[in-house]
Please model this.
Amino acid sequence: MKRALLTLTMAVALTGLGSTATSADPLPSWADSDARNRIIDFVETVTTPGGDDYVTPAERIAVFDNDGTLWGEQPVYFQLIFAMDRLADLAQDDPSILTSDTLKAAAAGDLETVGKGGTDAILEVVNASHSGTSVAVFQQAVADWLAEARHPDTGLPYDQMTYQPMVELLRYLRDEGFKTYIVSGGGLHFMRAFAEDAYGIPPEQILGSYADSSYEVIDGAPVIVKSPGIAFIDDKAGKPVNIERTIGRRPIFAGGNSDGDFAMLEWTTAGDGPRLGLIVHHTDGEREYAYDRDSHIGRLNDGLDRGPELGWVIVNMAKDWNRIYTGAQ
Model:
């Protein structure tokens, strides 16, 4: 009899059926705060069968910006750093591709000069470093870069500068029957190279900006080739447009960090039934960066001014997160 009881006890422990499994904290890196409690209350409300605000799994769509929301974005967008590094590599084999002062500065790592050129200069660097290659070759270049490159301030690999609290939130939502998407101004093919490993979000659930592309047969092999030029910028009002076009359902949960995400959150939370908008407010100058209204990237005005009256959760990074990056304690 004792042996049978012991066997049963071990089986329960090994299969995770004990009380510790059901009481596990879904958001361990979040402080016990109003932000965390509101997230959990919302999720429990929409996933409790029989409740007045129950939402079927098919309608549990959650969308998130990437830069500044799921991983860092300072001192500049990580994709721009990749573009400059890749341009330098390409120029070693063919210096003739550096056809302007902007491209020469980018290949030399002169971020200040590139930045002074504004959006036009950035697009020139992106075009020169991203086009003329197949999607597969490009995404392998992104993977190789992520394996080697390090952030200038933290010294961490860029894919370890994902925000641990947000990775936990994505996992929690999926565990509760949500389908999670990235909707970002970042490049579609750039994000698809790492998002599944970093966030558990597969390539088909990544919405981003994209360039023109073409179908070609090269050396007998059919490939998709990235062309110069931007076909669609997935930012500001473009985000809800792209969600409607690609997903076909209005989300019930949306997360962002800047005014580039405002339209996505506004459209999400304006729908019928229970909905939640979340803004990551970068308030932690000690462990990360503190910026909002006057930042050169990730500027946040409308979200701070109007978010509270719209019922959005404003996450105070310094107070609401016990941990910042996945790659650092």
In short: Residues 78-93 form the longest helix (16 residues).
